[in-house]
């Protein structure tokens, strides 16, 4: 043995993604509530904080210059632009957490999940799916009184996002928030034995 200090095996990164309106944030909030020991990555964003949001808890709020610097230094695992603002996952806190042998959870959009997979082939990608297409439509429609053209575009994007479920290692159906949270935590803490394709689908 080359050292008296036993090296910990880095834990596996778990990424949760899925279509808009499927309830990713709700499931992650339930994970935080029931399993406070689970570490959830805090995304960085260039948008302004909304009322009630706390810097470093909900997001790390950065200036455009700070975000540019992170990109230049390869300091983001993934990033994307939505509605004129940029969002990304700072790499350093995630790497530090995984190096201790403890699991880390990222809740990000599909585009970001693909970037993480390209950078880290060992990452476990979990797709959160609605119980049915009709359920997703009702959740998206219930978000406000948008013009029909906007709703149609939102549904078309959601359909394309749903079609991407085959790119993921495991599909978790969000038919019950508490059950979905339990299933996600069991995936987080399962020993890594390489990607397991095609989990529970319905």
Automatic annotation (TrEMBL):
Reaction(s) the record says it catalyses: GMP + ATP = GDP + ADP
Keyword terms, alphabetized: ATP-binding, Cytoplasm, Kinase, Nucleotide-binding, Transferase
Compartments it resides in: Cytoplasm
Gene3D superfamilies per UniProt: Guanylate Kinase phosphate binding domain, P-loop containing nucleotide triphosphate hydrolases
Binding-site positions, ATP: 18-25
Pfam families, per database record: Guanylate_kin (PF00625)
Domain Guanylate kinase-like: 11-189
Keyword Cytoplasm in annotation: yes
UniProt-listed Enzyme Commission number(s): 2.7.4.8
Record has Repeat as a keyword: no
One of the record's GO molecular function terms: GMP kinase activity
Gene Ontology CC: cytosol
SMART domains: GuKc
HAMAP family named in the record: Guanylate_kinase
Main function: Essential for recycling GMP and indirectly, cGMP.
Family: Belongs to the guanylate kinase family.
Full protein name: Guanylate kinase
Gene: gmk
């Amino acid at each position: 043995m080359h050292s008296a200090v036993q090296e910990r095996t880095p834990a596996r990164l778990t990424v949760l993604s899925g279509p808009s309106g499927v309830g990713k944030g709700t499931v992650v909030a339930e994970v935080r509530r029931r399993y406070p020991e689970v570490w959830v990555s805090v995304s960085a964003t260039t948008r302004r904080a909304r009322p009630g949001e706390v810097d470093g808890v909900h997001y790390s709020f950065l200036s455009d210059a700070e975000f540019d610097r992170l990109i230049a230094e390869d300091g983001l695992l993934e990033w994307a632009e939505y509605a004129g603002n940029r969002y990304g996952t700072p790499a350093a806190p995630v790497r530090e957490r995984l190096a201790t042998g403890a699991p880390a959870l990222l809740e990000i959009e599909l585009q970001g999940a693909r970037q993480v997979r390209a950078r880290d082939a060992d990452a476990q990608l979990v797709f959160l799916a609605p119980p049915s297409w009709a359920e997703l439509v009702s959740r998206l429609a219930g978000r406000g009184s948008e013009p029909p053209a906007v709703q149609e575009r939102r549904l078309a994007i959601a359909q394309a996002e749903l079609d991407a479920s085959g790119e993921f290692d495991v599909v978790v159906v969000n038919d019950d928030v508490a059950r979905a949270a339990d299933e996600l935590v069991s995936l987080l803490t399962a020993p890594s034995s390489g990607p397991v394709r095609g989990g529970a689908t319905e």
